Amino acid sequence: MSVDTLKTQNQNTGFSANPVTVVQEAVKQKQAVKRAVDDILDDTFEKVTEAAAAPVEKTLLNSVAPVRRVISLPDMVSQGDIAAAIGVGGLTVVSLPEDCRDLRDAYRHSKSMITRSRLSQPYNYRKYQHDFSFFRGTLLHELMKRAKSPRMQNFVKHIYSLDKTLYNTWFGALTKKILGIKDGKKVLSKVKNLDGTQQYVQQIVVKKDLWGFKDLTARAMKRTSILGLAFLGALEVPKIVKQFKKGDTTEDKVQSGSKQIGRAALNVLGVSIGMGYGGALGAKKFGAVGSLIGMGAGLFAGCGVSNLIKRLVLPKQQKSVDDSAV
198-205 and 182-192 as β-strands: parallel, antiparallel, unpaired? Predict the structure, then answer.
């Protein structure tokens, strides 16, 4: 092949046989690829860091009850759940005194851990778990204590009788029987009942307790108020009613409402189970501060599992332009 023929082929293909030009083009391409890879790695690292920090941030926010309730209000309002927002706002106000006491106890406990000073606790958290109350320490409790007339006093006593935990219901009795949970030694604590008397706490006795599951279950039930469950259920009612109104036919409305009932049940279970077990584990291991952080972590985990189940079992229908968020 002649030299003239080779030059003609190189010109036709656009290929330059100059080695310097080839090297320069290769260096430019290498630098461009490196910049692209660096950008991808930086973006990936940023997203991974944000994802890793999210549970910690949400756990800390969820650990502070007033903050946990307040930050949920904008979403409720934007989704049209005005009744639920009013309910949560009201609960935030009436529960503020007890929430502040919980924060105070957590602060004192954490301070004693840092300074290694002795702290007087209401009872031994590792051995016992007191029964939670929906009214104790709230503004409503303060109002009920001021009842003067016999009729109002009887009404208050009736309200007090309803304020019990899941542990002291037929469901709790059945669970205790199935798991072999029994009440042990009873001691007087510094926690007060609704009537102002000091509350007794009982040791939880279990046998063959794998990973402490039975003990934590009993503790979680003691931390779950029946009225609290009822309040969580009531917050879901407006959304259920709204879904029963959606659809062109009766069948569509029933189907939409039924799915929302399932979502509501998962919401209540996720919050209750998560906070119950998380708070029980935290309190047993780390006292008052562990209780708050445990509830925050449990709420985050419980809601996460609940939302996952909803996406798999009860997926939302495609929303039209006029549909509001469920």
Answer: antiparallel
